[in-house]
């Protein structure tokens, strides 16, 4: 009996593999045979934090479209962005893949289905997320950057000690995000340590990857709570308890004057319904389609805290790292910032927006180190679909893998090099003599770089994010001469001397990048 069952099982698996490799409707697309037969390879690379590199290697080998799973295609052509993520109701593109539903283990604007996303976006996209509002929040960003600069000057410049920028950028961005969302920071910059809430968020990254993997293999999601490590689930529950406590505290306070935070803006967009959604059952229907439940304010506050802090800290660290590894680019940025801004007060919204090299550095950092290395997949839901010129059948998961797209040789000259000059106009580039290869930047397909994605599901907080990126990076190089520090890795005597990572690709992205330490030497500007 056992032998018969084994024979049947093996025969089924072999026939399924043969079908997917040679007769399935996606078999005409290039890709590894193993990926065409099972998602196990995909899941393994995702769990190891190496999915982005794996997909890039497949594109390097096979071209602009490649099969990465039995029912999924990855694209690197610029046209795929609009074909996949735009169009349809609300310009949302194709529906999100089921694996991204509650990938963060809470339901929010990020992973809501299309119907609920339209409602949430309508209620939440108000003046709070406009460019005008971002300019009004500049004072908040500048104030917290003041604290960062003062701490770095006192603790490191004065004592000639290396600074671990991963921690300091996280301290800064979590404090800013806390104040912008709930008018209460986490006290990270003041205490020089992570608030327990922040530690929980950072520990949450691997859990998100686990939940995504389980959703790839029905019915494993039903076993998620049994399979997930107990300590991760305890961290998640503690996290939600902290959110509820913080939000309850915020709802009991009235903000002074014209001060507005996300909670105030959310309350102003509709009446709050504090009880119609069960915190333990986020699928419960709301009693009013034009109201926000307490659960929805909680979950979207978490989303904004996470997206507005961790992704920004990643962007700042990646830009600093790339500049430290490229002395010429660092020198050009320092020259532009210090020449354009005779005083630190001149580093304001208008002046920063008109610094071409600074903005080139930011865009090049986003190209090489996108906050989301693996773009969220969508599912084709209609017949006669063309994506980047390829006919794709309904039911196929499709996506643009940002890491692979941004480093594709077909899209960029010298794709793995940090070259902010590629983003300058011909007139702006005249002041930076370059070699013959760099003059080919005109052939770069710059439209493929979409760090905040496109369409109706693009980043709702992108205006504040770009302001924060400009302010912090410019003020760092205005105040300090920044260099990578040679330091014992992990502080253990006997290991090779050097910073904790030398290449950005040493980091591992799950949903977001799990960053390592990065040591820099900070000296008062010469």
What structural keywords apply?
single chain; 526 residues; alpha+beta; Cytochrome p450; 4-stranded mixed beta sheet; 3-stranded antiparallel beta sheet; 21 helices; 13 strands
Structural class category: alpha+beta
Strand content: 5-15%
Numbering strands along the chain, what is their spatial order in the largest sheet?
1-2-9-6
The main pleated sheet reads as:
4 strands, mixed
Looking at CATH, the homologous superfamily is Cytochrome P450
What is the radius of gyration?
24 Å
Cofactor: heme
Protein name: Uu.00g035150.m01.CDS01
GO molecular function: heme binding; iron ion binding; monooxygenase activity; oxidoreductase activity, acting on paired donors, with incorporation or reduction of molecular oxygen
Organism: Anthostomella pinea
């Amino acid at each position: 009996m056992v032998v018969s069952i084994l024979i049947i099982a093996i025969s089924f698996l072999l026939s399924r593999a043969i079908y997917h490799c040679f007769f399935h409707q996606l078999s005409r697309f290039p890709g590894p045979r193993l990926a065409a037969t099972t998602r196990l390879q995909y899941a393994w690379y995702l769990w190891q934090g190496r999915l982005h590199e794996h997909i890039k290697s497949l594109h390097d080998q096979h071209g602009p479209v490649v099969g990465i799973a039995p029912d999924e295609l990855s694209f690197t052509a610029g046209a795929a962005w609009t074909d996949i993520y735009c169009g349809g109701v609300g310009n949302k593109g194709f529906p999100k893949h089921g694996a991204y539903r509650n990938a963060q283990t809470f339901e929010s604007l990020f992973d809501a289905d299309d119907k609920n996303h339209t409602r949430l976006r309508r209620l939440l996209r108000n003046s709070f997320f406009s460019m005008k509002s971002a300019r009004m929040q500049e004072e908040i960003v500048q104030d917290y950057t003041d604290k960062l600069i003062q701490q770095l000057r006192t603790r490191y410049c004065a004592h000639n000690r290396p600074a671990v920028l991963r921690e300091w950028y996280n301290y800064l961005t979590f404090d800013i995000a806390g104040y912008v969302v709930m008018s209460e920071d986490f006290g990270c910059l003041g205490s020089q340590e992570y608030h327990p809430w922040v530690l929980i968020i950072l520990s949450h990254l691997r859990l998100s990857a686990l939940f995504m993997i389980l959703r790839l293999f029905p019915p494993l999601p039903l076993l998620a709570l049994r399979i997930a490590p107990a300590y991760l689930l305890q961290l998640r529950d503690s996290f939600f308890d902290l959110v509820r406590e913080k939000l309850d505290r915020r709802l009991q306070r009235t903000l002074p004057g014209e001060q507005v935070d996300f909670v105030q803006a959310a309350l102003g967009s509709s009446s709050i319904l504090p009880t119609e959604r069960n915190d333990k059952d986020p699928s419960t229907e709301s009693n009013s389609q034009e109201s926000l439940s307490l659960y929805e304010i909680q979950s979207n506050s978490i989303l904004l805290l996470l997206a507005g802090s961790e992704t920004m800290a990643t962007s700042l660290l990646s830009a600093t790292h790339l500049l430290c590894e490229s002395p010429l680019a660092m020198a050009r940025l320092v020259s532009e910032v210090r020449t354009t801004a005779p005083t630190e007060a001149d580093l304001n919204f208008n002046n920063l927006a008109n610094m071409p090299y600074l903005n080139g550095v930011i865009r090049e950092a986003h190209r090489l180190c996108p906050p989301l290395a693996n773009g969220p997949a969508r599912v084709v839901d209609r017949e006669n679909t063309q994506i980047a010129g390829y006919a794709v059948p309904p039911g196929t998961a499709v996506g643009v893998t940002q890491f692979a797209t941004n480093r594709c040789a077909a899209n960029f000259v010298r794709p793995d090099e940090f070259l902010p000059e590629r983003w300058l106009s011909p007139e702006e580039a005249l002041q930076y003599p370059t070699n013959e290869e760099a003059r080919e930047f005109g052939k770069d397909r710059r439209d493929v770089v979409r760090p905040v994605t496109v369409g109706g599901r693009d980043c709702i907080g992108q205006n504040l994010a770009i302001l924060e990126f400009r302010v912090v990076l410019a003020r760092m190089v205005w105040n300090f001469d920044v260099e990578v520090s040679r330091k014992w890795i992990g502080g253990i005597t006997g290991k090779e001397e050097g910073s904790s990572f030398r290449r950005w690709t040493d980091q591992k992205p799950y949903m977001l990048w799990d960053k390592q330490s990065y040591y820099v030497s900070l000296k008062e500007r010469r």
